[in-house]
Specification:
This protein has 6 helices and no strands. It is mostly helical.
Length: about 150
């Protein structure tokens, strides 16, 4: 791990925000896991974690409203997610997992967008964020494709 003085000054300013974003991801993943556990205990149906499902839905709506994703490469995935969320036939477990993958993807993209362009291509700066964003985006796409 690098010492604080080794961190580029433009990144040091962003560090508290990056920490906040990482902590928010833990909350999202905890909510998704609680919904998954509930469904596992109830033959695939979500019965005890309505507040967790609601939290994931609200977090998804919040990040899509506060992020600049209108003309982003993720806009079609956001639109598809909003579309399936209106379908009452989609199981809550599937929606919760879709929202969690979407939120994680969007959060990583927000973090990447915050990195100064001059540092964005440095593997030590953005490599892990790029990797995680790709993993979550692949999961998000897979979950959306399962609904077709």
């Amino acid at each position: 791990m690098r010492e604080r003085e080794d961190v580029h000054p433009e990144l040091a300013v962003l560090e508290p925000w990056f920490n906040e974003m990482h902590l928010s991801l833990f909350d999202i993943l905890a909510d998704a896991q609680a919904v998954t556990n509930d469904a596992g205990e109830n033959k695939g149906k979500v019965v005890n974690t309505h507040s967790r499902v609601h939290s994931l839905r609200e977090a998804f709506l919040d990040i899509t409203c506060t992020g600049d994703f209108d003309n982003h490469l993720l806009a079609p995935l956001i639109t598809r997610t909003l579309h399936i969320a209106k379908d009452r036939a989609i199981p809550q477990l599937h929606l919760a997992q879709t929202w969690a993958a979407a939120i994680c993807t969007l959060t990583y993209f927000k973090m990447l967008d915050a990195i100064p362009a001059s540092l964005l291509e440095e593997e030590s700066v953005s490599g892990e964020l790029r990797h995680k964003s790709k993993l979550h985006m692949a999961q998000w796409r897979k979950l959306l494709d399962e609904v077709r």
